[in-house]
Each structure stands twice: as structure tokens, then as C-alpha cells.
Write a structure and sequence with these properties.
4 helices, alpha/beta, Rossmann fold, 6 strands, single chain, binds flavin mononucleotide, 6-stranded mixed β-sheet
Length: about 150
């Protein structure tokens, strides 16, 4: 199994934090603590975020740039994770493309829905209630297991 870390930004309802935390053998850190982690010890790194106005939080791309720069010649495998109110897969795919543009080897992208009370959704009590749910968590763990073994 590859030594794995996930760095996340999760500021709306802790949806992304809930998805990526508490997985055996996988260290999850808020992205603003990445400076304290010895990044070079990980061979598989996940970059995970809620989607805000169509994009993951900018801090993830910043960290990706740093990883690309510091690990030149021997970068870790990277995967992209997005939670969003709509659950659209395009967000994580676009994020993946941005990471690839930095020269990082992206080995997967995962998307799921996350409880969303932004803007008008608040008036109706939010959308994607209870997401990420048990099925989302199981799907993410299966995705991760494939990446860690391959
Ligand atoms: C400011 C803001 C903007 C958002 N924009 C989008 C969006 O463009 N598309 C979408 O599907 N969901 C959008 N959402 C919903 C979040 O992506 C969703 O709730 C996500 O799971 C939040 O993750 P978090 O709880 O980890 O922060 C937005 C939420 C906020 C607060």
C-alpha cells in the first residue's frame, strides 16, 4: 500500500472533511496545515475540496504548484476530489486537467454530492441533504483502495 495523504479545504458544511477523514492508513489534513507535513514521504496525495462558484478552493491549486516544484523528477501520484451541491463530475475533471497542466501525474478523480445551502438553496432547506452519505463514503473508500494498491 502506498503511503497516502489527503489535503482538503472544507468550509461550507464539512462535507469534504467528512468524506476524506477517518480512513485507515490515510492521513487527512486541512490544506492550511500542508506546510507542516513532510510531503516527500507520501507516494499518493489527494487534493480535495468543496466546489465554490464552479471551482475548488484556490489553496489546493497553490499546494499542487508547490508539490510540482518541490518533487521535480519524482512527483507523487495525485488524485482530485470534489464535493458539490450538484454532484457534477465536470468539476473534478476540470480540476484534474489543471493539475495535469502543472505536470503532475493524476491517477484519478472522484466526485460526489455535498449538502448545499448556498444562496437560494437555503430558502428550500438546502439540496443534497445528508450527502456525503454512506454510499458516497463507501464509493470513495473503494476508489482509494484501488489507487493505493495499483
Ligand atoms: C460560496 C459557495 C459556492 C458554491 N458553488 C457551487 C457551485 O458552483 N456548484 C455546485 O454544485 N455547488 C456549489 N456549492 C455547494 C458546495 O460545493 C457543496 O456544498 C460542497 O459539498 C461544500 O463542501 P464543504 O462542506 O466541504 O465546504 C457552493 C457552496 C458555497 C458555500
Amino acid at each position: 500500500m502506498k503511503k497516502t495523504a489527503i489535503f482538503y479545504h472544507s468550509s461550507h458544511h464539512d462535507n469534504t472533511k467528512k468524506l476524506v477523514s477517518g480512513i485507515e492508513g490515510v492521513e487527512a489534513f486541512p490544506v492550511n496545515q500542508a506546510g507542516e507535513a513532510a510531503l516527500s514521504q507520501y507516494r499518493l496525495i489527494g487534493l480535495a475540496s468543496g466546489v465554490y462558484m464552479g471551482k475548488p478552493h484556490a489553496s489546493l491549486l497553490e499546494l499542487a504548484g508547490k508539490i510540482a516544484q518541490d518533487s521535480r523528477g519524482n512527483p507523487p501520484e495525485i488524485f482530485a476530489v470534489c464535493t458539490s451541491g450538484s454532484g457534477g463530475k465536470g468539476y473534478a475533471r476540470r480540476f484534474q486537467a489543471q493539475l495535469e497542466e502543472l505536470g503532475l501525474p493524476v491517477v484519478g478523480a472522484f466526485s460526489c454530492r455535498g449538502f448545499d445551502t448556498f444562496g437560494p438553496w437555503k430558502l428550500v432547506g438546502g439540496i443534497a441533504k445528508r450527502h456525503p452519505d454512506q454510499r458516497d463514503l463507501e464509493a470513495f473508500r473503494a476508489f482509494l483502495e484501488r489507487l493505493r494498491k495499483s
